[in-house]
Q: What sequence folds into this?
């Protein structure tokens, strides 16, 4: 594939080089006002990342598009899935085909590596429809309030800044059972930690030091964002252990493992989930990707 601009250098798989990595940090800071350098305190960026970037003569990253491995469970089946993220082009370089070029390179790479499902989140679906992506509607599950009991599980608030808490969370993320058998990530450590650190309202609570609950509560509504552990407790067990008595419960992932009754409401997020690939047709029914797995 010829590069679209001869005065730019294409770099692939460049995260090992601290200078080029900082180029991407700056591009995403300038484009989305997010600081992905925070990942340094959690052990660095996702080692499965496949970044494709154009750099100018001063070493600035002017365009990037990355793929990464995001194994999923879809209707009980393990699926080799790829996520796409960090798509941005600096304003002065837009409209010249740089993004098209980088998307084509990333898609060719994941196709060659046998990925069966491609996923991305975007506020610009038209950009990706021409490559065969379609929008997957997401649904919040509003749960019937379960009967709470006195809990003998210890609930302990965790902090990402406490090294032993971080170690516990990372271990459980590695050993976890997917939060849903219908639609969930199997392994995704880096985005979970980054999402938790981006949003200070998210609470991470360890139950008996073998399950982490990611949640928020505004005094009335309880949002269950993720459950990380080798077994998934019921919604009643979780609420009893956290000692919250909400008026409304919103579950932000497919709730099939929570042993609860739900009604569905369309999720109106800022971005849309899009999919394509040979495993995409197996995705059926209402679902939601946990906000902790957003990328
Ligand atoms: C969106 C963005 C990456 C496009 O970069 P670019 O280098 O200008 O894109 P290209 O010139 O390679 O155009 C690629 C294709 O996308 C189309 N496109 C560009 N911007 C688009 C937009 N906002 N919505 C829909 N389609 C768009 C182009 O028409 C072109 O179509 P073609 O391949 O059929 O000719 C860039 O505008 C940007 O960084 N925006 C801010 C960050 C952002 O939104 N990133 C995407 C996150 S999902």
A:
């Amino acid at each position: 594939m010829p590069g679209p601009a001869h005065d730019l250098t294409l770099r692939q798989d460049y995260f090992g080089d601290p200078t080029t990595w900082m180029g991407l940090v700056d591009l995403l800071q300038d484009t989305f006002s997010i600081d992905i350098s925070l990942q340094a305190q959690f052990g660095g960026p996702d080692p499965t990342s496949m970044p494709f970037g154009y750099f100018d003569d001063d070493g600035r990253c002017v365009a990037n598009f990355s793929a990464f491995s995001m194994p999923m469970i879809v209707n009980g089946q393990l699926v080799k899935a790829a996520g796409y993220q960090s798509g941005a082009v600096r304003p002065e370089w837009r409209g010249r085909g740089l993004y098209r070029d980088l998307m084509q390179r990333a898609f060719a790479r994941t196709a060659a590596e046998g990925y069966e499902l491609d996923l991305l989140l975007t506020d610009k679906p038209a950009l990706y429809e021409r490559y065969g992506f379609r929008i997957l509607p997401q649904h919040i599950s509003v749960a019937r309030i379960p009967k709470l009991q006195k809990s003998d599980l210890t609930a302990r608030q965790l902090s990402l800044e406490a090294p032993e808490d971080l170690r516990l969370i990372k271990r459980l993320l590695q050993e976890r059972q997917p939060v849903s058998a219908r639609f969930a990530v199997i392994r995704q450590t880096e985005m979970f930690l980054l999402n938790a650190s981006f949003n200070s309202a998210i609470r991470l609570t360890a139950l008996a030091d073998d399950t982490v609950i990611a949640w928020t509560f505004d005094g009335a509504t309880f949002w269950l964002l993720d459950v990380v552990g080798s077994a998934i407790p019921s919604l009643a067990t979780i609420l009893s252990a956290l000692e919250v008595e909400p008026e409304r419960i919103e579950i932000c992932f497919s709730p099939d493992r929570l042993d609860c009754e739900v009604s569905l409401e369309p999720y109106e997020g800022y971005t849309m989930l899009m999919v394509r690939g040979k495993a995409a047709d197996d995705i059926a029914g209402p679902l939601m990707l946990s906000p902790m797995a957003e990328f």
Q: What stands out?
A: Residues 53 and 142 are 41 Å apart (CA to CA). Residues 31, 87-89, 94-100, 122, 124, 126-127, 130 surround coenzyme A (CB under 6 Å). The first strand starts at residue 9 and ends at 12. Residues 140-266 form a domain with the Aminopeptidase fold (CATH 3.40.630.30).
